[in-house]
Amino acid sequence: MMRLSLPATLLLSVLLAACAGNREASPIKRLEQSGPLKVNPGLLGQPVPAQATPVAAPAQPVASVTEPAAPTEKMPAPPVASVPQNPRSLYFDYKSAELKDADRQALRAHARYLAANPQARLRIEGNADERGGDRYNLQLGEQRAAAVRAALLAEGAAERQITIKSLGRSQPKRQESDEASWAENRRADLIYENEK
């Protein structure tokens, strides 16, 4: 059998007496304290007087552990987000104006910025690669810019903040005629007007 030290025995007997004396009470008790905190000296490594008795409960509660503290001051408003830097270009598959899932998070960041800054203006320029005719590529560039605009509006940007423009194949990023260059040229560029 294990032998307990005197402070441990006293603490155990106080706990058992408190549990046995109040069987009808709820299993969750509110801890209350008034005045300075009273601790058994044995818990602090000090000698315990032979006639130690448990501390009586306070007559009137001061504060409850289960009650949250009332807020004393308002939290400051978060700073206005800066203009999102990346990506400023969204890329599309061949003959497609469908946004990629990977671009959705970047579009949310741009939409949050626009919603937080009603004075901001964004121009979306749709581009295409060199394959296909001028008219087809102008339409495809417009469809790509419109898809980006629709996604921004769905995320909270205002219509008046966004304009679209199709450049077709007139302003390629790369001049070569290979798949890597064409992939760079199938894009929609996000251009903030009057950026500081």
| Alpha-carbon Rg, integer | 35 Å
What CATH first level of the domain at 89-193 would be assigned?
Alpha Beta
CATH architecture annotation name of the domain at 89-193: 2-Layer Sandwich
Class by SSE composition: alpha+beta
Overall number of strands: 4
Largest sheet: 4 strands, mixed
Detail the poorly predicted runs.
62-72, 74-80
Task: Describe the SSE topology.
Elements: H1 6-21, E1 89-91, H2 104-116, E2 121-127, H3 134-154, E3 162-168, H4 179-185, E4 187-193
Parallel strand pairs: 2-3
Antiparallel strand pairs: 1-4, 2-4
Characterize the structure shown.
It is a single chain. This protein has a domain at 89-193: 60s Ribosomal Protein L30, Chain: A, CATH 3.30.1330. It is rod-shaped and about 100 Å long. With 196 residues, the protein is an alpha+beta fold. The relative contact order is 0.14. Strands 1-4-2-3 form a four-stranded mixed beta sheet. It has helices at residues 6-21, 104-116, 134-154, 179-185, and strands at 89-91, 121-127, 162-168, 187-193.
Quick synopsis:
The chain is 29% helix and 12% strand.
Please describe the structure with a list of short key phrases separated by commas or semicolons:
alpha+beta, 4 helices, 4 strands, rod-shaped
